[in-house]
Specification:
Layout (H helix, E strand, L loop, with lengths): L3 H32 L3 H12 L4 H11 L9
Length: about 70
């Protein structure tokens, strides 16, 4: 039995997950602007779009979110 289809599937899933993350990250500024989002809202938005994120991905999210940091509670 060949493992080639499994490898291709894994590569495609990783590519789709990466594309999904960057698509959500691109839409994050608009979400923050329209909703005056706090970090909890950003967290929920990103996980709803992408599922569980890595620490490195959260650092990218934080970099996009920081200019919209309006909530003094955080």
């Amino acid at each position: 039995m060949s493992t080639a289809p499994k490898i291709v599937y894994c590569i495609l899933m990783f590519k789709n997950e990466t594309d999904l993350f960057y698509s959500a990250l691109q839409s994050l500024p608009q979400f923050c602007y329209e909703t005056d989002a706090d970090w909890g809202m950003v967290y929920d938005f990103m996980e709803a779009q992408c599922g569980k994120l890595t620490d490195a991905q959260w650092e990218e999210v934080e970099a996009v979110y920081n200019p919209y940091l309006n909530d003094s509670r955080y």
